[in-house]
Amino acid sequence: MHSYDHKTLEAYLATHVPGFGSLDGIEKFSDGQSNPTYRLTSGGTDFVLRAKPPGVLLKSAHAVDREFRVMQALACTDVPVPHVLHLSGEDTPLGAQFMVMEMVKGRIFWDPALTGMSPAERAAIYDAMNETLARLHSVVPDSIGLGDYGKPGNYFERQVTRWSGQYQQAARAPLPDALWLMEWLSTNMVSDDGASSIVHGDYRIDNMIFAPDAPRVLAVLDWELSTLGHPLADLAYQCMHWRLPHAGHFRGLGRVDRAALGLPDEAAYVAAYCARRQISVPDNWTFYLVFSYFRLLAILQGVRRRGLEGNASNPKDTERLRDVIALLAHDARQLAQTA
């Protein structure tokens, strides 16, 4: 958690955030391993503050300025995002850059199995997620001032290089399965088909707020990893999460009877997305899934390193991440070898 002086932070927020008066309360959200996020209370209004973590950070990580920029740009589209209110500089009362946005009131589903709902309700929630993802990928970046939000072309090649470097920088000891995956991804690299869109980078059910009484997405959250890239990266990343265990650290749907619960299977979900985007169902689906596994384990390796150095947003899970990373690497290698 950040260190700060209450009065200094209060004066800053009152000066820079529209509608903010006294700082009546500040509470850190317990979930999340990346950018520390706080609920601020001022009068009868709640705000959300999202900051870079303290300490030395990996290059290009924790970019709250990019989160602010993409949500500000998407506000004029049909992609639901919170209304952003302020982006600070690096020199702040928290000792780190932060942004402030509105607090959207609604439902967050931490369990992707949607326990307690009917099959029809579950199906509608997942269809809303599918529709929202298709909307995002249909936005033309140039039309909202995001034409320079990422590098053009060769997205997966650049991403494999980036996350391989991030993993190697963060790892304390080599993990054979992870090193094997780097080689496999490079050897089996998909060709660049020219598809490009705004990609969220962490698209999953618990990064969304749904309406209290309807299967409608009110806000997509956590844009830290967003960039311009290949839309199939987002689609495969979400589907990869459904393959993860439905237990422990994971919030997946592995071994869950989806049909009985009314949840779409992977093929049906991919087909619905492609129909909405009017594109063909992708070839080389295994590559996109394996890439998603490797990217996630590289991200978690960075989280674990910060935890070992005392800079994690949620340090209690630091040691457990070692086993999580090993499991991701093992399962991804098995998927690649048996496809």
TrEMBL record:
<dbReference type="InterPro" id="IPR052898">
    <property type="entry name" value="ACAD10-like"/>
</dbReference>
<dbReference type="Pfam" id="PF01636">
    <property type="entry name" value="APH"/>
</dbReference>
<feature type="domain" description="Aminoglycoside phosphotransferase">
    <location>
        <begin position="26"/>
        <end position="251"/>
    </location>
</feature>
<dbReference type="InterPro" id="IPR041726">
    <property type="entry name" value="ACAD10_11_N"/>
</dbReference>
<protein>
    <submittedName>
        <fullName>Phosphotransferase, putative</fullName>
    </submittedName>
</protein>
<dbReference type="InterPro" id="IPR011009">
    <property type="entry name" value="Kinase-like_dom_sf"/>
</dbReference>
<keyword id="KW-0808">Transferase</keyword>
<dbReference type="GO" id="GO:0016740">
    <property type="term" value="F:transferase activity"/>
</dbReference>
<dbReference type="InterPro" id="IPR002575">
    <property type="entry name" value="Aminoglycoside_PTrfase"/>
</dbReference>
